[in-house]
Design a protein that fits this description.
- The protein has eight helices and seven strands.
- Strand 4, helix 6 and strand 5 form a beta-alpha-beta unit.
- It is α/β, with parallel strands linked by helices.
- 39% of the residues are buried.
- 33% of the residues lie in helices and 25% in strands.
- It has a single domain, classed as Vaccinia Virus protein VP39 (Rossmann fold).
- It has a seven-stranded mixed β-sheet, sandwiched between helices.
- It is globular, with a radius of gyration of 16 Å.
Length: 209
C-alpha cells in the first residue's frame, strides 16, 4: 500500500486534480443513487482524494469525514472544499486506526479504492469497515476491474469473493450492478466497474476483529 500511496503522491499534479474534480458525483453514483441515505446523516468517504464526493454529500446535508492519506490531495481538497464543512483526516487502509476515534456512520463509501488492496489487506479492512457502521448503515464499494494506472497498480477483484467476505461480516448485499468506465481511455483498456451496496442490520452473529 505504501508504494501505491507514493504513486498517488507523484501523480497528484494540477492536471490530475482538475481531471478528478471534473467528474460529476451524481453521475458516478448513478448505479446506487437510490440506495444512498436521504435523511442527513454521518458519512465516511474512504480514499476521498480532493473531497469531490465528500463536498457533494455535504451539499445534501450530511456530516462528512473525508479520509485521505495522500497529502497533496488533502491539501487540494482543503483549498477547494475547505469552506463547506468537510473534516479531512490523514488515515489509511487497511486498519484505519484514526477513523475509529470518530464514531459510527450511516454511510461508508469507497469509490475506486478497493482494488488498491491485496487479498490479505482486504481481509483486514472489511471487518474494520463493517465495525464503522451504525445499525442500518450502508457500505458502498465501486470495484474496479482491469489494469491500474502507471504507479498505481490494481489487484484483481472478484465480485463473488467480495460478497462472500461481506456476508461473513454480517453485511447484506442490497445491490450489485456493473457499470462502464466514465473515462474513454480506461474503456479502451478494458476497465469496468461493479457498484455494490451492503447494509448492516445491527446484529452480529459473532464479534468482528
Amino acid at each position: 500500500m505504501n508504494d501505491i500511496l507514493k504513486g498517488y503522491t507523484a501523480a497528484a499534479t494540477p492536471a490530475l486534480i482538475e481531471r478528478y474534480e471534473a467528474f460529476d458525483p451524481a453521475a458516478l453514483y448513478a448505479p446506487v443513487l437510490d440506495l444512498l441515505p436521504r435523511a442527513p446523516g454521518r458519512v465516511a468517504d474512504i480514499g476521498a482524494g480532493t473531497g469531490r464526493d465528500a463536498a457533494w454529500f455535504v451539499r445534501q446535508g450530511h456530516a462528512v469525514l473525508a479520509v485521505e492519506p495522500v497529502q497533496p490531495l488533502r491539501e487540494a481538497g482543503l483549498a477547494r472544499h475547505g469552506d463547506v464543512g468537510i473534516v479531512f483526516l490523514d488515515d489509511d487502509l487497511p486498519h484505519l486506526a484514526r477513523v475509529r476515534d470518530h464514531g459510527l456512520f450511516d454511510l461508508v463509501t469507497l469509490n475506486g479504492v478497493w482494488h488498491h488492496l491485496d487479498a490479505p489487506a482486504r481481509a483486514v479492512a472489511l471487518p474494520v469497515l463493517a465495525n464503522m457502521l451504525r445499525p442500518g448503515g450502508r457500505l458502498v464499494f465501486a470495484l474496479r476491474h482491469g489494469p491500474g494506472a502507471p504507479g498505481r497498480p490494481a489487484f484483481r477483484l472478484s465480485d463473488e469473493e467480495t460478497i462472500d467476505a461481506a456476508a461473513r461480516c454480517d453485511l447484506t448485499l442490497l445491490r450489485s450492478r456493473k457499470a462502464e468506465s466514465h473515462q474513454a481511455g480506461n474503456r479502451a483498456l478494458g476497465v469496468d466497474w461493479t457498484w455494490m451496496v451492503f447494509e448492516w442490520s445491527g446484529v452480529r452473529s459473532r464479534p468482528l476483529p
